[in-house]
Amino acid sequence: MQQLRTSRRQFVKHVAVAGAGALAAPRVVPSRVLGADAPSKRLNIGMLSCGGRSRQLLGSILGPGENIVALCDVSTDEISLLVKEAAKHGQNGAAVEKAKVYEDYRKLLEGEKSVDAVVVAPGQRWHVPMCKAALLAGKHVFCEKPLAHSVAETREIEQLGKQTKLATQIGSQGGASETFRRSMEVIQAGVLGAIREVHTWITRSFPPSAEIDRNADPIPSGLNWDFWCGPSQLLPFKRYYLGGCLAWGRWLEFGDGHLADMGAHAHNLPWRALKLTRPTSCRCEHPEPLKDSYPSANKFCWEFPARGDLPPVTLWWHDGPKAGPPEPLASQLAATYNRVPGDGVLFVGEKGLLFANAWGVGGTIKMTGEDKFRGVLNHEAAKPVPVTLPRAPGQNHMLEWLNACKGEGKTFQGFDTAAAICEIAMVGIVALRLGKPIQWDSAAMKVPGVPEADVLINRPQRTKWL
Question: To which H or E segment does residue 202 belong?
Answer without folding.
Answer: strand 195-202
